[in-house]
Amino acid sequence: MFKQLKNIDTAFSHIRTFSIVFLIACLALSATVLFKSFRAMRQSEERIYIIVNGKVIEALASSRKENLVVEAKDHVINFHQFFFTLSPDEKVIQSNIRRALYLADESAKKQYDNLRENGYYASVISGNISQAILIDEVTIDVNAAPVRFTCIARQIITRSTSTVTRSLKTEGVLRSVDRSENNPHGFLIEHWNTIENTDIKIENR
What we know:
There is one protein chain. By secondary structure, the chain is of the alpha+beta class. It folds into two domains: 2-48; 68-204, Nuclear Transport Factor 2, Chain: A. It is built from five helices and six strands; from the N terminus they run αββααααββββ.
C-alpha cells in the first residue's frame, strides 16, 4: 500500500513538473508572439507611400534627427538655386524669388530688395542675361545653437558677348519651423549674409 501511495505521489510530482514546464513554455511563446506582433506593427507604421507620376512608391519614415544634416543641406541648396537662378523673363524671376523667400527670413528679402532697387533684375531682362549657380559645398554645424551653415558656390552669368564665373560664399543659421508645401524640409534661413561674391573667370563668346 505504501508503495502504491509512493507511486501516486511520484506521478503527481511528474504531472506538477510537466504542468509548470508547459505553463512556462506557453508564457514564453505568448511573449514572443506579442513582441514580434508589436515590432511588425511599428515597422508597418514606419512605412509611408509616395505618389510619383501616378505611381505609388513605398518609403521608410525616419526621425528628424537621423536626417537633420541631409535635410538642412538640401534646404540650403534649394534656397540658393531659387534665389540665384535667373532668366531674362520677369515671370521666371518672380517665381524663383517667391519660392526662395518661403525658405528664408527678411535677411533674404532685404538682399532681394537691394538688387531690385539697384536695377539688377531689370538689367538681366533687358540684357538677355541668364544666371545659374553650381553648389560646390554646403557645411552644416549641428553642434552650434542655432544650427549654422556655410555655402560655397559658383555663379555662371551668361551674356550675349561673354560668360562670367563668380565665386560665391554665404552663411547663415537655420531655425526649425513647421513643414509645408512651400517649405518641405521645415527650416527657415535666418541672418543670411554674403561673405564673398567676386569674378574668377571671364570668357568671350
